[in-house]
Amino acid sequence: MNRPITVGITGGSGSGKTLFLKQLMEAFNAQEVSLLSLDNYYKPRHEQPIDDQGIENFDMPESLDRERFSADLKKLKAGEDITIQEYTFNNDSKTPEIIHIKSTPIIVVEGIFTFYYKEINSLLDFKIFIEAPDYLMLTRRITRDAEERGYDLSDVLYRFQHHVTPSFKKYIEPLKYDSDIIIPNHNGFERALDVVITYLRGKLQE
Q1: CATH number at residue 165
Q2: Which ranges of the chain does DSSP label H, i.e. alpha helix?
């Protein structure tokens, strides 16, 4: 291929993006596909917007360093490898990893604001939106935030009601129909995953 194909994946928090990404990445080898996650571009905690209760809101477009993210994606598309530091979501018990990302024929870009940022959206060749019912997204969010980020239940519920859901309705869900494929993740996504893998394998052979 003359240039990488960039695949954007988004959806609500807890929609099942992580599992979909894991299985998609496993369908290709490390020389074929790489992953750039918007999760590693959050600004430091002291730079996060504050809600009217004095609580940091990590679910706003300004919560992330969109300029650095855009610059790194452009480097990957231009054939340059990059190195970034993992963002640990203020989990003091976790040591951030140094992540080396190769410029590969397929570059997967994922994150809740991947479609919202116009400068990122314009760099995407194929866009996937994953959706799930609110109750499933909340259940997955509770599990993830407890295990990976050390948040207690009351904190998770507050953020889901006052930060996650309003942000999703305002910034993310309206862009669903701008995607190339919408994947309902109510009872699994195996068939849709097969379609995406087949499409990307075809692109690799071009």
Answers
A1: 3.40.50.300
A2: 17-26, 66-77, 118-121, 134-148, 153-159, 165-167, 190-205
Residue 204 makes CB contacts below 8 A (sequence gap 6+) with 1, 32, 105, 106
The pLDDT tens digits for 146-176 are 666 667 788 878 888 899 889 999 999 999 9
Rounded distance between C-alpha atoms, residue 172 and residue 12, angstroms? 7
How far is residue 99's CA from residue 82's CA, in Å, rounded to a whole number?
Answer: 8
- State how beta strands 82-85 and 98-101 pair: antiparallel
Distance CA 149, CA 152 (A): 9
Nearest to 60 by CA among 69, 51, 73: 51
How far apart (Å, rounded) are the C-alpha atoms in residues 102 and 80? 7
Domain count, the chain: 1
**pTM beyond cutoff 0.90:** no
Contacts by residues 175-178 (CB-CB < 8 Å, ≥ 24 positions apart): 175/10, 175/115, 175/116, 175/129, 176/129, 176/131, 178/115, 178/121, 178/127
Q: Which domain holds residue 160?
A: 5-205
User: Residue 79 in 3-state DSSP?
Assistant: coil
* Number of Cβ atoms within 10 Å of the Cβ of 64: 22
